[in-house]
Amino acid sequence: MERIHRHILCIDLKSFFASVECVDRGLNAFTTPLVVANTDQGNGAITLAVSPYLKAQGIGGRTRLYQIPKNIPYKKVPPRMKRYIEMSKKVVAIYLSFVSQEDLHIYSIDECFLDVTGYLSYYKKSDYDLAEEILKTVEEKTGLTATCGIGPNMLLAKLSMDIEAKKYKNGIAKWTYEDVSSKLWPITPLSQVWGIGKRMEQRLNNLGIQSIGDLAHYDKNKLKAKFGVLGEELWMHANGIDNSIIADFRHQPKEKSFSHSQVLMRDYYNEEVFLVIEEMAGTLTRRLRSDVQECQVIGFGITYSKVTGGGFYHSLKMDQPTDDTGKIYAVCLSIFDKFYEENMPIRKVSISLGKLSKKSGRQLDLFSSLEIMEKQDKMMQTIDEIHEKFGKNSLLKTTSLLSNSTIRDRNQKIGGHHE
């Protein structure tokens, strides 16, 4: 399979929130025990960030305050999202002094990708030397330290940063395709690798896949049969292949799409939100079928509580258009697994269905049965007709009676019953 050969930097600001608080107080983040947490929530508050000093003591970034050993004293400060955004913009401005906007992808408030392929001859530096200069400039101008991964594609740059860069004094690691077998394949558990969450790890473990090497050598067609387009992506990533480029992440002009966002009445955590996601996917697919449309691009996003701020939104293109609730729900969960930060409070869920096309027939793949697909279509059509005639609350799954379901209230608010 063809592989791209670029010079990609993935730069992450170390313990960003906590480091900003230390810089603003004139403190050394590597010698100061500082925790960023909501001071109104008492000892049960989740730490949004801890200083590098506390990380070195084994304190994780998403633990509750009461879990910090009592023999470790620390300073607790409340989060200041406005200040963190301000500092993030300052760092991005530094990156843009080295590369153009077209070669920068802002992945999160503290992490960016830079494609420096076209700049090495201009600066007369290797990608490694240029990374050193950028990190040094960030520290001199902001007081913040960073780690950097370098790779021939975005995936290997990210993995070298996540897995190896922290081991070196200058915080820089470089992986090539030749390093995949020696550095990527031995990794276990699977969830140590970007893009594999705990739920996906368990499903892969059930197939006998324990290491990334196991995944790389597993039958790609079997993975695709079980997980769809995500199975093929897992196999490619296990082999160090990622042909996406920064240009893929630039905003394109909006085309017609169906979208749905829901602000939750309380904080939801982890798997508790899955039912809400499934119900929202069902609502959107009913709209698709009503309009005789299918979608090929699925976007999914989570917004965290105002107390913590932040969130994510990402999209995935399917091999074939679909109006199947189960497939769309599965894609949403895969994006959730990949980007959700454990134990973060969820207050808003967003789903969008794009690249719409008129449903004109079925294209079979190796793993589809026309008879089964026609039965599924007929069943969904019958359910849609019942909802149209008797109201959206006339036929619900038993899970809709659970406390974390929102569909009954939502249906009533949007006219769930037809007189």
Keywords, separated by commas or semicolons:
419 residues; alpha+beta; 5-stranded mixed beta sheet; 15 helices
What does this molecule look like?
The chain is an alpha+beta fold and 419 residues long. The chain has helices at 16-24, 52-56, 81-95, 120-123, 127-142, 154-163, 180-184, 198-205, 212-216, 220-227, 229-238, 274-290, 325-339, 370-390, 407-413, and strands at 8-13, 34-36, 49-50, 75-77, 104-108, 111-115, 146-151, 172-174, 258-268, 293-304, 311-322, 346-354, 357-358. Helix 3 (81-95) crosses helix 5 and helix 12 (274-290) packs across helix 13 (325-339). The longest helix is centred in the last third of the chain and has 21 residues, at 370-390. The radius of gyration is 23 Å and the shape is globular. The protein starts with 7 loop residues before the first strand and ends in a 6-residue tail after the last helix.
